[in-house]
Design brief:
The protein has helices at about 5-20, 25-35, 45-60, 65-70, 75-90, 100-110, 115-120. By secondary structure, it is an all-alpha fold.
Length: about 130
């Protein structure tokens, strides 16, 4: 089990890595952002940093590229992404991006079906 400091360090390192990838392959950047989410962290700031990292990638992807990015994701990555989309939709500080989040939600639902929604809503491990 990782300590809070280790989890925070990993999240901050991931944030830096993803920021450097945003000008290139957005699918790879999203995969990195979704890898090993801080579900065991009790620190809301750590979880928020990772959520914002995922949100940065989502908003950096052009609308015409959303389908191709989603198609390259594995089902487990899609489930984690669905959790983050719901978290971002519920966060009032991201309300200006809700239209983008809803587009991602619709396209993700098209790939995964209702199962991803059910899994993201019932999983006790929160992002």
């Amino acid at each position: 089990m990782s300590s809070e400091e280790e989890i925070s360090a990993a999240v901050n390192a991931r944030k830096g890595k993803v920021a450097g990838m945003l000008s290139g392959d957005k699918t790879s950047a999203l995969r990195v952002a979704l890898t090993d989410p801080p579900v065991t962290s009790k620190n809301p700031d750590t979880k928020a940093i990772n959520c914002n990292t995922v949100g940065d990638v989502i908003t950096a992807v052009g609308e015409s590229d959303i389908d191709s990015v989603i198609e390259k994701l594995e089902m487990a990555e899609c489930d984690v992404l669905m959790k983050y989309i719901y978290k971002l939709l519920g966060d009032t500080s991201h309300s200006d991006k809700s239209g983008v989040m809803l587009k991602w939600h619709a396209k993700l639902l098209k790939k995964t079906g209702m199962g991803s929604i059910v899994r993201s809503m019932t999983d006790r491990k929160t992002v």
